[in-house]
Amino acid sequence: MFKGISKRWLINTFGVVLAIIILLIITLSVSVHSLCYNTVESALISQCEDLRTVFDNYTAENTDSFMGAAAVYASNFEHKDEMEIEVLDSQGQAVSTSSGFASGEKPVPEFEDAVKSNNGMGKYVGRSESGEKIMAYTRIIRNAGGAELGGVRYISSLRNADGKVLMYTLIAVAVGLIIILVVGLSGYYFIRSIVKPVRQMSETAQRIAQGDFSAKIDKMYDDEIGELSDSINDMASELDANEKLKNDFISRVSHELRTPLTAIKGWAETMQYGVPDRITLEKGMSVIVKESSRLTSLVEELLDFSKLQSGRLTMQMERMDILAEIDEAVYMLKERALSEGKHLLYDDPEDMPIIYGDRNRLKQVFLNVIDNALKYTPEGGMIGVQAYQDFKDHTVKIVVADNGCGINPEDLPKVKDKFYKANQKINGSGIGLAVADEIIKMHKGSIEIESSPEVGTTVTITIPIFNEAAALDDDSLTPGVIADNSAEKRQ
Questions:
Q1: 37: CATH
Q2: Where in 158-298 does DSSP place strands (E)?
Q3: Strands 456-464 and 395-402
Q4: Is 477 helix (H, G, I), strand (E, B) or coil?
């Protein structure tokens, strides 16, 4: 029962509370003991001080005369119910008492201390000859010449004082036990309120780890435990959604791979079983080359995505003219646009500042973005590519706009996520834009997407202009350095 959180609470919290209560009980007992004993002692000292008025300027020269006077004082003592008086001779032995019985045949224990003390008083706390616990004070009486005539001893029983100490100690112990019981019960229910949800979370997490993303935690409390329950439930939902996206991705990739492979295999078999006429041969070879290129692009995209996932996507950074890569990307897709009956327009600026980047990776981004625009633009549609320098934030912006089908508002925030594909009717793996976004981030830039359904989509790629001063302070901006997106460097 007591393990984990319960054990730590028992040792830390309950143990500390128990130690504090024990310390308080001991402190209270000592304080009450000191108070009660000091009260008794004060009463005895007060009587000893008052004795001065009784025997002040006492002129008796012998002990017998003093004994007679002291016996009269003892017999007339008005506080007999509170304390007892003993009259002592010059040797410290009791010769008479206020109760009428002489006690003891040897000097009282504190007599020598009283004789030696400056104030003529001595104290004793211990057992009487009858075994009762007492406190006693002895006051020495001297004549005018300074000789000891005897003494008067005041004795008070400590039974009542010890009884009060015991009573208050028992009360403190009872209160302490009640506090411990209350703390224990409240702690027990508090620990249960934590341990039970935590155990449920552990069981649910194990189910999630085994692939059961439908597992949910019942929210019991509206506090940090409840927030943690919500977080785990949200995590399970996200994992479930990602699992579905991954399965859809695998299905799409399988289809993307199977379609060109089927075409290649079909034409290869056609040519294997007989040489067709030249026109058919050229058409078949064209299909094989085209589908092979499509397969190569898809495989390269998958490899880049794998590197992205493992943090091994690398950049060969150098100073470069970005216009050359934009021109080449537009040129490579120009013929495709014409064959599909679409208009690909490029506003070629005369000059553009130098940027710092990977030529091949940036061209890959431009090809991906323009390719997407072509995919989602119907026949007769228009795709515009524009590049310009933004003097305000010292960047280069490449804008690719189309008047295609657009993206729904609920899909727009997710289009750069891995595996996500807004339009399932269009061919594609759904990872190209995620790779492109990571490449631009590694260039310290960004990709922004604006879109309206049935109106079109505008993609803006922003890349910072190369800064010589910044390059001197940043090793990652040194020509020839290979930058990567590993977890260590991103942190």
A1: 3.30.450.20
A2: none
A3: antiparallel
A4: helix
Does 352 reside within a domain?
yes
474 and 327 together in one domain: yes
Amino acid type, 474: D
Rounded to the nearest 10 degrees, what angle do helices 224-272 and 159-209 cross at? 20
**Number of separate domains in the chain:** 3
From first to last of its 491 residues, the chain has per-residue pLDDT tens of 455 666 777 777 778 888 899 999 999 999 999 999 999 999 999 988 888 777 755 555 566 777 788 888 888 888 888 888 888 888 888 888 877 665 556 888 999 999 888 888 999 999 988 888 999 999 988 877 777 788 899 999 999 999 999 999 999 999 999 988 888 888 777 777 777 788 888 888 888 888 888 888 877 777 777 888 888 888 888 888 778 777 777 776 777 778 788 888 888 888 877 767 788 888 888 888 888 887 887 788 777 777 777 777 788 899 999 999 999 999 989 988 998 999 999 988 878 899 999 998 999 899 989 988 998 899 999 999 999 999 888 999 999 999 988 888 888 888 887 766 666 566 656 678 888 898 999 999 999 999 998 899 999 999 999 876 555 455 544 444 444 444 333 33
CA distances to 60, 66, 73, 271 from 55, rounded to whole Å, are 10, 9, 10, 146
Is 396:389 a contact under the CB 8 Å cutoff?
yes
Question: For the chain, how long is the longest CA-to-CA vector?
Answer: 162
Polymer length in residues for the chain: 491
Q: Within this chain, do residues 271 and 325 fall inside the same structural domain, yes or no?
A: no
The span from the CA of 10 to the CA of 261, in Å, is 67
Give the domain CATH number at 303: 1.10.287.130
> Which residue type sits at 107?
P
pTM over 0.85: no
- For 122, the enclosing helix (H) or strand (E) is strand 121-127
Q: How far apart are CA 417 and CA 244, in angstroms?
A: 13
Residues 295, 317 within the same domain:
no
Query: Alpha-carbon torsion 161, 162, 164, 168, what sign?
Result: positive
Same domain, 111 and 159: yes
Give the closest residue to 152 by CA, choosing from 87, 98, 96, 93.
87
Which residues span the domain enclosing 150? 5-164
